[in-house]
Amino acid sequence: MAIDAATVRKVARLARIAEPEDRIEPLARELSGILAWIEQLSEVNTDGVEPMTSAVAVAAPMREDVVTEGGDVNKILANAPKTKDGFFVVPKVVE
């Protein structure tokens, strides 16, 4: 699959990336090369290969699920940049 300059311009516009005109053609060639490499990967025979989430087969350590009263409020709030009445103070994000 080859990517042309028009496709690069369209994707750059959709991604709101300002790409100089003199970089469009080289970028199209680079992206086409990446897609060609990905197509080569599809030729690899993966029959009988189990899907994995890690290169090392290690079980995740489990801990006992215990309900507690929480931690010491003063210790928890000690690292907060700003607190008020025992709560974290965060900037308002909704206008």
Describe the 3D structure.
The protein is mainly alpha-helical and about 100 residues long. About 40% of the residues lie in helices and about 5% in strands. It contains three helices and two strands, in the order αααββ. It has a two-stranded antiparallel ribbon with strand order 1-2. Strand 1 and strand 2 (about 85-90) form a beta hairpin. Helix 1 packs across helix 2. About 0% of the residues are buried. The mean pLDDT is about 90.
Helix run count: 3
What fraction, in percent, of the residue positions are helical?
A: 25-40%
> Helix/strand-derived class?
mainly alpha
Low-confidence stretches: none
The total of beta strands comes to 2
Radius of gyration: 26 Å
Shape: flat
In a nutshell, what does this entry contain?
This protein has helices at residues 5-14, 21-41, 73-77, and strands at 83-84, 87-88.
Topology:
Blueprint: H1 5-14, H2 21-41, H3 73-77, E1 83-84, E2 87-88
Antiparallel strand pairs: 1-2
Helix pairs in contact: 1-2
Please describe the structure with a list of short key phrases separated by commas or semicolons.
single chain, 95 residues, mainly alpha, two-stranded antiparallel ribbon, 3 helices
